[in-house]
Amino acid sequence: MSNITKLAKLIKMTGDRAKLDAKMNNTYIVYKNKNGHIVKEYIDGNIVLIHNEESSYE
After folding, report:
1. pLDDT value at position 31?
2. Which residues contact 26 (CB under 8 A, 6 or more apart)?
3. Cα distances (angstroms) measured from residue 11 to each of 2, 30, 36, 52
4. Residues of 33-47 as b/e, b for ≥16 C-beta within 10 angstroms?
5. Mind listing the pLDDT tens digit for each residue in 1-58?
6. Can you tell me the distance from the alpha carbon of 44 to that of 48, in angstroms, rounded to the nearest whole number?
7. pTM to 2 decimals?
8. Interatomic CA distance for residues 9 and 1, integer angstroms
9. What is the DSSP string of 15-58?
10. What's the rounded Cα separation, in Å, for the pair 25 and 41?
């Protein structure tokens, strides 16, 4: 198995683990989707776009 394949598998496993933890703790995960937007994905499958003003550190 190539290093790229191993890395891709590890990344997928990390995402799967995050979803499992979110389900256990009744919360959500945050990630960048394919369109480049930051989103929250809830355990019920609902996906909410995080707006820029919401994600700022001001």
Report:
1. 93
2. 43
3. 14, 15, 17, 26
4. eeeeeeebbeeeeee
5. 899 999 999 999 999 999 999 999 999 999 999 999 999 999 999 999 998 655 555 4
6. 12
7. 0.70
8. 10
9. HHHHHHHHHHTT-EEEEE-TTS-EEEEETTS-EEEPPTTTS---
10. 14
| C-alpha angle 7-11-42 in degrees, rounded to nearest 5 | 175
Q: Name, in order, each residue with C-beta under 8 angstroms of 42's C-beta and a sequence gap of 6 or more.
A: 22, 28, 48
Q: Decide if 21 contacts 15 (C-beta within 8 A).
A: no
Compute φ and ψ for 51, nearest 5 degrees: -80, 155
Q: Which of 48, 58, 9, 56 lies closest to 27, judged by CA?
A: 48
